[in-house]
Amino acid sequence: MEQVNNARQVQKQYEKADNLQVRIRLHAKYSTNKEPFGQWIYKQYALEENMRLLEVGCGDGSMWGNADALLPRGAQLVLTDFSGGMLEAARGNARGEKISFLQADVQQLPFEDETFDAVFANMMLYHVPDIQKGLHEIVRVLKKGGRMYAATYGENGISGYLGELLSGYGVKSDMNRTFTLQNGGEILQRYFTHTEVRTREDGLVITDREDLLDYIFSMTAMMGAADADRESVRKLLDARMQDGVIYIPKEYGMFVCTK
Questions:
Q1: 78: helix, strand or coil
Q2: Most CB atoms within 10 A, among 52, 96, 179, 195?
Q3: What is the pLDDT of residues 85-117, one digit of tens each?
């Protein structure tokens, strides 16, 4: 039952792209590492001509705004997401003749075995109700020697900070640890012959608490803090400001895995 409830919360959060855009804007505005996260992710990929590529949980597809320039000659990318609303946003953001779109659940991918040379699963595996089933499907559709790229967060970043901040509203201080930088390697080694982790140095230096409040209230349904009052949370943030700044650590990285 808990898996079902979590899945419903995630679906509610991602049925439209608005909440995601709030989170993207906060990171873009206040990150100490000014290289866009999507650009850092793209730099980790080893892409070649004529590859068949799949992205699961593509979100709003914004990193593929100029896909024809980003993808090598002859390459084809299929963007999928379980949310129809999110996929609709991706159709508007991701442009190019090398891209196609399909609504699909990573736990039951509608593709033949060994179809793709690479699979991208960024910032989404911790949302999958049955991560083992999702990874099994990714491996199934991946060609032998192909790679999966899976960006995720660590356990010492913004999720833990917000969990502790909102503990008075019933939010557990421990975040979703289904798939993190700390435990992801152990999970993935069951499915792939080789796994490496690449980390990204970063943090948030926030000067306008209203932006952080917007971020928090884009997350409350998923975090279980739907009863949080904006003014009360504002006072909590005021108490944490030092010299007009709220500092929040960020811990992100990527697993690169070979079948």
A1: strand
A2: 179
A3: 999 999 999 989 999 999 999 999 999 999 999
